[in-house]
Amino acid sequence: MSFPLRSTRRLITVLAAATSFLCSGLTAGAQAPISEAENEADAAGRGIRAGSFLVFPALELRAGYSDNINLSSTNPVGGKIVDVAPELRWTSDWSRHELSGAASGVLSYPGGGSSANEGSAAASTAARIDISSQMTLRGNIGYELDFEPGRRDHVYRASSALRYGFNRLSLELRGGIDVFDYSANRAGAVSVSEVSVDDYRQNSLALRAAYEVSPLTGLFAEAGLNRRDFRQKVDASGFGRGSHGVWGALGISRSNGSALQGELALTYRVQRPDDARLAQVAGLGVDALLTWQASALTRLTLAAATDIGETTLAGASGYRRQTASIALDHSLGRRAAINGKLSYERNDFDGVAIEEQTLEAALGVEYFVSRAAVLTADFSHLRFDTTQPNADYRENRFTLGLRLER
User: What is the pTM of this model?
Assistant: First the structure.
């Protein structure tokens, strides 16, 4: 793997400047947060004040090895991993209202005989307007980018929510627009692109009603609908693309102040394609995000989600996506912590005999050199299985890293 000398010098100059800036906040006797780097109690002693805003810059450098760096099912090739991951968060420090934002990215320099870079980036801005003690208005805009040789995927998001609460009852109306732009680049020239058959736009609307049973426990019900329109109305196989859907959820919530907090809901979704030849996709599911603070040093997080995705596979009307994960964070003292995560994803396509399953196990160790510098070591094992022939693959990955933050 080789890089142009000029590009390498520029990269070194940028990294050196960022490292010098971040390391200027290092103090020899600083205490590291227990279990989580973004602990609210610790945040008061971190960040850079810029007027009425607090800014939190960070930079992570990782290097390691993968035994299947291209995720190949037929010819796995090992290679070195070099990642550069900058991050910037900011938030207002106002008594009323709130304005915040975040930007992050990962630039990867792969080995395994490839000199082409790949990576991802994301940016978002959120605002909250406190109209009254009972009514709040929230808005959010975001952008996501994933790129690799020959392809760039863009996602644009915008959403808003109006919430009104009275006594123990609250109502929330949400609306959103999501645009998925999957650029089909020719000959690997990322500057030249054509419209992808997978590009589509989703408009959604949802209403949520919640009732506070006790100061810590609440019940809620949600109902929503969406409309999905493809940029190309008819795919290469002659099927009309586009759909409309409805969904509902009943759940329970636990608020801050208890050892167990978060939400758990039973959901039902239906997505009906516009083309009458394609059957509707429907199913029950579970959505959850629960955190259990087992002790002052140990936290367990459980997450689950169910959704219906779009596809342009010939004869397929869509697919049911189910995801679940369990994560453990445990502090070994003031300066060390370990974490582990097990995640699972299943995609079941309707109309064609295709099923995909992804299982990933990860284990990590962190050592807090100071409040502003953390050494990391991570290992992960990835398994992808599908009913399609010769498409399964495995990957083992190990990385060492340094995270700098202010």
Answer: 0.82
